[in-house]
Known about the structure:
The structure is a single chain. This protein is mainly alpha-helical. The protein has a domain at 20-106. Helix content is 53%, strand content 0%. The chain contains six helices and no strands.
Amino acid sequence: MIPVWAQRQEALLRDGIVSPDVFDHIVERLRDCVVPYQRAFTTEAGKRTMHCYLQGLLSHVDCKNAETIAAFVDVERLVLQEFIGTAPWDHRPLVKELVREVVKQLGEPDGVIAFDPSRFPKRGRHSVGGETAMV
């Protein structure tokens, strides 16, 4: 007999599968979305290739490597391979742009966003302070 939590977990995992077709209408909107990030690249080739690469990542192709993405977006494989692996670019301007975009979308003068990456499962019935946890 499968425990109830395992049955629920299987159902949630089945529901969580997303078809790549979901992204078809997003690809055109992606052109506008990547503009601020494209400015962080110093070369025109990097700016153009970024959109192609993201379009491939959001596509239905099974194996998301430079060769299959290049074939899908109809560019030379070496162009994508250079962009991904050997082209010199700095990630810091991209991170700065991401921060600007998050502040623009979510920012409030008195707002705070807190992330807790620990993700430790709860064990036992007591909280850290020693009180009985509600179960």
